[in-house]
Structures are given as structure tokens and as C-alpha cells.
Amino acid sequence: MVRHSDYAELEAKCAALAADNDKAMEAMKQANEAVKLAHSKFSKLAAENAGLKYQEPTLPAMMACLEAFYADEDVPERAMMAAYNILRKSVGTPDTDAFLAEVRAQGVERYAAQLKSEAELADEAGWDGAAKFLISESGKVQAFAAQIRREAAK
């Protein structure tokens, strides 16, 4: 014979499983969005790198190269290097630059976190001056990470 309390217990377990399922689904949605974002970023990087492999200079860059070459044609090696440098600088890699700036900023943030951790240890040891200094430096390092990101966004 099935008792009423058995139903109540099973319903409670079912409700708990449903709640866990909702949390898992939300986590899966967030993970899916993160994967989509990563795919988008890496696709841009791949396209940019493919463009570097088979780059086609723009007309203004080519004209600047010719002008640089003819300005120094008496020394062909120097003229070629001047033209090459103009071409090399004419190729932009904004997605790669942004990716590398983010990597640098994250490295700087890790250093800031390490400073903060050391400050906590200094505080526990009673070294108030050292703790204050390390906290101050951690803040400056965090500001530097933010500056790296701002400069990359320009």
C-alpha cells in the first residue's frame, strides 16, 4: 500500500531535481554563449592572420612605397627597406592587437591579485606599513590594466 507521505516525499525530490535541472540549463546556456563569443573572436583572428599571409597593399601604401623608393634610388637596398617598412606598417591587425592587449591586461591583473594576497599576509603578520603599501600598489597595477584596455579600444 502506498502512503500519502510517500507521495509528498517523491514530489519534494522531483521539485528539487527540477530546480537542479533549471540551474544546469542556465549554466549550459551561459557556457554556450561563452563558446559562441570565443568562436567569434578566434574566427576574426584567423581571418586577420590569413590576410597577413596573402596581403594585398592598398593603393596609397603602394604610392608611398614608390615615392620612398624613388627618393633614395641611388642606394637600392636602402630604398627597398624604406618601401618595405611602409608596406609593413600599412597592414593593420586590430583584432590581434585587441586580443594581445587583453592577454597583457589579464597578466597585469594577476600581478595585482598577487600584491593583494601579499598585503593580506603582511597584515596578518602585523606589518601594517607593508600591507598599506602593497594595497596601494595593487590599486595602481589594476589601474594600469584598465589603461591597457582603454588604449586597445581606441
Quick summary of this structure?
By secondary structure, the chain is mostly helical.
Query: How would you state the average pLDDT, rounded?
Result: 89
Tell me, briefly, the overall form.
flat
Radius of gyration: 29 Å
Content-based structural category: mainly alpha
Give a quick account of the main beta sheet: strands, pairing sense, barrel closure.
Answer: none
Tell me the strand percentage band.
under 5%
Number of strands: 0
Separation, N- and C-terminal Cα atoms = 73 Å
Give the ordered list of helices and strands. HHHHH
Fraction of residues in helix: over 70%
Number of helices: 5
Oligomer: single chain
Walk me through the structure:
There is one protein chain. This protein is mostly helical and 154 residues long. It has a domain of 55 residues. Helices cover 88% and strands 0% of the residues. The protein has 5 helices and no strands. The longest helix has 50 residues. The N and C termini lie far apart (73 Å). This is Eae-like protein. Keywords: Coiled coil. It comes from Salmonella enterica.
Task: List the SSEs and their pairings.
Blueprint: H1 4-53, H2 59-71, H3 76-90, H4 94-124, H5 128-153
Helix pairs in contact: 2-3, 4-5
Keywords:
about 90% helix, Eae-like protein, coiled coil, about 150 residues, about 0% strand, flat, single chain, mainly alpha
